[in-house]
Design a protein that fits this description.
single chain, globular
Length: about 90
């Protein structure tokens, strides 16, 4: 998908425009999203804390996801003993 290959935004307007494009592609036709609302929310998030390196870290996350392994040993035993383990570690 081209939206995942977009260059990171360099200013507020680009961030809002990219976000509206992404919501247009990823959103559900059954639950339409108002582009003005998406742009406004993105603008507030940009104003609060924009970090281009953080954006790069988030985008690179899926590349390392294949290396993540299920817990084993002591961690797995602790997970099974947690009171909410069934809802935390097993798909519902």
């Amino acid at each position: 998908m081209k939206i995942f290959a977009m260059a990171p935004p360099t200013n507020r307007e680009e961030a809002c425009r990219n976000s509206v494009k992404a919501f247009g592609v990823l959103g559900s036709p059954q639950y339409p999203t108002d582009p003005a609302q998406v742009a406004e929310r993105t603008g507030r998030a940009y104003d609060r804390s924009f970090d281009p390196l953080g954006s790069a870290r988030v985008r690179s996350g899926p590349l390392g996801a294949a290396r993540v392994r299920a817990p084993s040993g002591r961690g797995a035993r602790l997970g099974r003993s947690h009171p909410y383990a069934s809802s935390m570690f097993r798909p519902s």
